[in-house]
Write a structure and sequence with these properties.
mainly alpha, disordered C terminus
Length: 473
């Protein structure tokens, strides 16, 4: 008997979800709601608001999105690989390190910008630097567990081979973003400026989005959405798509890195970035097309496997394998991929216009928010009520009706945040358009917070509900 067979899989640890939601409702969507109201309704703000904006962005990436990904991946990926988690005791360190680091940074950075006197100011600087150490330690323990576990997977795991390239990209992204974020925080903690370098900070956000968020979402989508939504069987070369996606990432980010580091030949690389944008936009559109989540043009993977339900078995929802016990989670997934398609089209067009030497009308923030506030946020809000109950051995989500409410609120939040950025050139020319745009932006943060709060209520009720006994199923 092999070592893998001797070791049992570790259970799902709901603490990561609790921490993810806690970050979201406080320094994530919480900060976003405050800032959006102040900016959208043009209320007075202090000098701390830019520091709070940076702290909010980091908390959303590493806390709301990152902690959720870590918690799910530590449960899901070992089972996908057929190899139980190596060194499971180390996983107990990840959450306290990351959660404490995220909250310490989110609190210390805005307070540093508030102009408090010593010794409080010096203490806050040390706190900001210490938070970077905690976060980096947590990320690299996670990466150690993930890499050692995946390396121990049996060679005959086609399900893992299909998405291995996306997981490798994500591992690299976690490491690069962690080191960059720590370096920026240390640099700020050693000086008098509480703000992280704006250009490098934006580069870090793009790095995390491109190397961690999107490939992780693509890997999980390939392995779970055909089952959850009865999509077509995955018989297309997923790994080849990952290779092209990686090539696009390199083309996009290497010129930006060269420019930030002021390498002498940086200007000669500038033309590669728009080529990479066209390539990434195209490969994402092809990925969505092959997944067939938006149009459902191809028969599901079950078409040759099941017939009509027998008289003793009630039919499932039309086109779906469940009975509604997880709510209308599919609406959130469809909306998420609609936003990803929009982002891909915007990026493709933006890169093409630059190559044609035509001024692009798109604000870079528009693409960033379409990826993060649109695609990944709605994807997490949809996957959570469908995936987490099963991980907790619950038959259903506690309040299925709230899942549809989450869809309406979250979609409204995403539209209110993204539309003013995408349509800025049009709204400015429409009478009253600017006022409508600013109002929508002001409401977007509150709506986003409300969507996270509804999800938190539903998952907490689900966590506390009785688990089913497999002998009764």
């Amino acid at each position: 008997m092999s070592d893998n067979q001797k070791r049992a899989h570790t259970p799902f640890y709901f603490g990561f979800v609790l921490a993810s939601l806690s970050v979201a409702l406080t320094v994530g969507f919480g900060y976003a709601a405050v800032l959006a109201v102040l900016i959208g309704f043009q209320l007075p703000m202090g000098s701390w608001w830019v520091a709070m904006l940076q702290a909010h962005g980091h908390a959303q990436l590493l806390g709301w999105i990152g902690l959720f990904i870590i918690g799910v991946s530590l449960y899901f990926l070992p089972r996908l690989a057929g190899a139980p988690l190596r060194h499971p005791r180390l996983s107990a360190w990840i959450l306290p390190l990351l959660a404490s680091g995220i909250f310490l940074r989110a609190l210390s950075q805005p307070l540093l910008a508030a102009g408090l006197e010593d010794p409080v100011h010096t203490g806050l600087r040390w706190t900001l630097g210490f938070s970077a150490l905690l976060e980096t330690a947590g990320v690299f323990i996670y990466l150690h567990l993930l890499v050692t576990t995946l390396r121990g997977a049996p060679a005959d795991r086609p399900a893992l081979k299909t998405v291995r390239i996306f997981l490798a990209i994500a591992v690299a992204g976690w490491g690069l973003y962690s080191l960059l974020a720590a370096g920026l925080a240390f640099h700020a903690s050693l000086g008098d400026n509480p703000l992280l370098d704006i250009a490098w900070n934006r580069f870090g956000i793009e790095l995390f989005t491109g190397f961690v968020v999107l490939p992780t979402a693509m890997a999980f989508s390939v392995r779970t959405l055909p089952l959850y939504l009865r999509l077509p069987a995955v018989r297309w070369p997923v790994a080849r798509y990952g290779q092209v996606y990686l090539m696009a990432l390199i083309l996009i980010h290497v010129p930006v890195f060269a420019q930030l580091t002021e390498i002498s030949f940086a200007s000669s690389l500038a033309h590669l970035s728009p080529i990479g944008k066209v390539l990434r936009g195209a490969i994402l559109l092809l990925f969505i097309w092959k997944l067939d989540i938006l149009f459902r043009w191809y028969p599901p993977w079950t078409v040759h496997r099941i017939g009509e339900p027998g008289p003793d078995r009630r039919p499932t929802r039309p086109g779906l394998p469940d009975y509604g016990e997880f709510g209308r989670f599919e609406l959130l997934l469809y909306a998420a991929y609609a936003f990803l398609a929009l982002a891909a089209m915007v990026e493709l067009l933006d890169g093409a216009l630059v190559l044609l030497r035509i001024a692009s009308p798109f604000d870079p923030d528009a693409l960033r928010h379409t990826h993060l506030a649109g695609f990944i946020t709605l994807l997490l809000l949809g996957m959570a009520p469908r995936m987490v109950p099963g991980f907790l051995h619950k038959r259903k989500v506690a309040l299925p009706g709230l899942v549809a409410a989450t869809f309406y609120v979250a979609t409204a939040a995403a539209l209110c945040r993204i539309a003013p950025l995408l349509l800025v050139g049009i709204l400015d020319r429409v009478p009253g358009g600017l006022a409508v745009s600013m109002t929508a932006f002001g409401l977007s943060g509150v709506l986003g917070w409300l969507a996270a709060a509804v999800l938190a209520c539903n998952l907490l009720r689900t966590w506390r509900s009785p688990a089913f006994d497999i002998r009764d199923s």
